[in-house]
Amino acid sequence: MNAPLASSFDRLEQQRTYFSAWVANAPAAAQYRQPGSNQWSAAQVLFHLALVDQQVVTALEKRIASGKPLRPLRFKAKVRAFLLKWALRLPIKFKAPPAVREVPDTVNVSEVVQEWQTTRSRLQALLEAYPAQELDKEAFFHPRAGMLSLPQTLQFLEDHTEHHRRQMQRLLP
């Protein structure tokens, strides 16, 4: 795996293990407590994070398996990725895109932790096989930011998880 990808993957893994342990080690009542109507519990936030990872990895796998040549990353895409990065750092709430908005009322935390680990193993395999000459090409379509390169996609996953840290701190102080 190329060094920048390995570094990004290591940070993602640190986040995954931290968030997974954070929720799994909390008392069950705290895991499932919703602060208000239409607000997620810590278990549901964990489910959402794992679901986003799963959908990103699946989209990347499909894009690569299609065999279609990846287009060079355009300047506009770089600007949109930068704006996405900074938007996720702001302490404001965003409505999740429809594909990842729905979370079940009841979440089995241990299953989510295992599924997230499986998704990350798939991501690791993808990163290990990803050609270095494709790193500056459009690889993933983000519903709000448009096309992202693979390094930008990994940065999005990291920033997205961090965006939910404040929410998790309120749910599991």
TrEMBL record:
Matches recorded under InterPro entries: DinB-like, DinB/YfiT-like
Record domain DinB-like: where: 11-168
Stretches of the chain forming a coiled coil according to its record: none
Protein name stated in the entry: DinB family protein
Gene source species: Rufibacter glacialis
